[in-house]
Structure formats: C-alpha cells, structure tokens
Design goal:
Length: about 140
C-alpha cells in the first residue's frame, strides 16, 4: 500500500511522519524504516526504527531510489513499513514521475507486503484525480 501526506513547506509533514512512525513501531511485528534526505530528524525517532539518510547514497533519480528500497526489503524481508520524508529533496519529481514511482512501490508491496508512507510538498488541490486515492487526510 502506498499513502502520502502533502502540504506546503513548513506545514508539519515531517512532524506528522515522525509521530506516525513512532506510534507504528510500538504496534507492528516486523521492521520499520524511516528515510530522509538529511540526518536532521534521526534523534526524534524511536531507537527501534531503522533510520537511513538517503543522500549518503548519492540518490538523484527515481530509479536509483527504487534500487535503494529494493535493497532494503531484500536485506530485511520483514520490513512492514517504510516512511519516506522529503523525496522531492532527493530526486527531481513531478506528478508523472510520482505515478511511475508509485507503480514501483506497488511492485515491492505486492511481493513483500510493505507499506510506504511519503511526504509530498504540494497542495491537495494540485494532486491529479487518479492519485487522490493515495492521500492521507
């Protein structure tokens, strides 16, 4: 399953993702991963959450990021959720590429049953109709 939170810069997307991850880690049986562009929020996360600073891996394209995600789930088959904060800071992203990326994520989900929660810097009104099903209110 793929879900995303959207909003303007400074609207609390990261804070909400961190809260969701910290709440989820108490309830899920498998692993939980939090990925962001920098190391800015690593200390705000529960110590049981696997934290990854994606920019350490020179991520700059959707395909490269997809490869990173495949490596994560391949090395740890019981990852239940992956939170991705600030994907738009790591790769060039528009709605066409986002739709492509969601297909990639659904491929991983279909094989490993991994849920993905992303933050997006955009307004709900700007989301194309075919992608509104992925929004978290």
């Amino acid at each position: 399953m793929v879900k995303f939170i959207c909003g303007k810069k400074g609207s609390g997307k990261t804070k909400r993702l961190i809260e969701m991850a910290n709440d989820d880690v108490k309830e899920i049986k498998g692993g939980l991963v939090f990925i962001e562009a920098t190391k800015k929020h690593s200390l705000n996360l529960n110590y049981n959450i696997r934290y990854i600073s994606a920019m350490e891996f020179n991520i700059n394209k959707i395909e490269t990021f997809y490869g990173l995600l495949c490596g994560i789930v391949a090395s740890d088959y019981d990852v239940e959720k992956i939170y991705i904060d600030g994907l738009y800071k790591m790769v060039e992203l528009d709605f066409y590429l986002l739709e492509k990326f969601i297909k990639y994520l659904n491929t991983i989900d279909n094989i490993n049953e991994t849920e993905f929660i992303l933050s997006m810097e955009c307004e709900k009104e700007d989301i194309p109709d075919n992608m509104k099903e992925y929004l978290i209110d």
